[in-house]
Amino acid sequence: MIGAPNMLLIGALRRDAGKTEFACALIKALCRRGFEVVGAKVTTMRPEDHAFHFDVPRRKDLLSGKAKYVLLEEKRRCAKSDTARMLLAGAKRSFWVVASSAHLEEAAQALLAKARPTDIVVCESNSLRLVVAPKRFLVVDREGPGEESGKRSLTEALRFPHEVIRLEEDGAQLRESAALAAGIFSASP
Predict the structure, then answer these.
(1) How, if at all, do strands 132-142 and 120-124 pair?
(2) CA-to-CA distance for 87 and 37, rounded, in angstroms?
(3) 98 lies in a domain?
(4) Interatomic CA distance for residues 124 and 8, integer angstroms
(5) pLDDT above 70: percentage of residues in the chain
(6) Average pLDDT rounded to a whole number, residues 134-138
(7) Residue from 97, 93, 49 nearest 72 by CA
(8) CA distances from 61 to 9, 54, 67 (A)
(9) How many CB atoms lie within 10 A of CB 182?
(10) Distance CA 66, CA 184 (A)
(11) Residue 173 belongs to a domain
């Protein structure tokens, strides 16, 4: 297990629960407190995922085992991707990591090497919790109907200590939850 005392890891109880929305609110709250933030999204590819993740770079190489992981730095602040939204929220750098499940730990080490020890890493991923011990594992869920996640990564990740953040449609509640979560880091370095 990789210790990551400068990481806030965000998972979700279902699809479209608001992970990226919460991550961006958290990045804004941390930046307001004077922290420099690195944003990240980690996608795990398993051999049985051959019918999913069509937008993943080097998808065939990852599924065949030719590639262990792909680490891409987002440079476009105008794109609509989750990692671009993190840059727009104030992250100084943002990464999309796609890893085969067998090489998730190696990919996590490569991601953490991109951040300075004083940076706060805000990362979206359920599966990363299986190999990383973050400062906090925050699991978001949106009130109301939604598609329940049947993802194995979620079931496995919830075995570890976590806090559930229930998001409502109220933007003030989102900002309040993010500010509280940001408060676990005492003061600007």
Answers:
(1) unpaired
(2) 9
(3) yes
(4) 9
(5) 71
(6) 90
(7) 97
(8) 27, 12, 5
(9) 22
(10) 40
(11) yes
Do residues 166 and 35 make contact, with C-beta atoms less than 8 angstroms apart?
Answer: no
Tokens of 9: 């890891």
Which pLDDT tens digit goes with each residue over 70-89? 888 888 877 788 889 999 99
- In-domain check, residue 187: no
Distance from C-alpha of 60 to C-alpha of 65, rounded to nearest angstrom: 8
Residue 48 phi, psi (nearest 5): -75, -5
- This prediction's pTM: 0.82
Q: Which amino acid is at 184?
A: I
- Please provide residue 9's backbone torsions phi and psi, each rounded to the nearest 5 degrees: -100, 130
**Distance between CA 75 and CA 87 in Å, rounded?**
8
> What contacts 124, CB < 8 A, 6 or more positions away?
10, 11, 19, 20, 23, 40, 41, 42, 82
Q: How big is the chain, counted in residues?
A: 189
Helices (H), the chain: 19-32, 59-64, 82-89, 104-113, 152-157, 171-182
Residues facing 39 on adjacent strands: 94, 122
How many structural domains does the chain have? Answer: 1
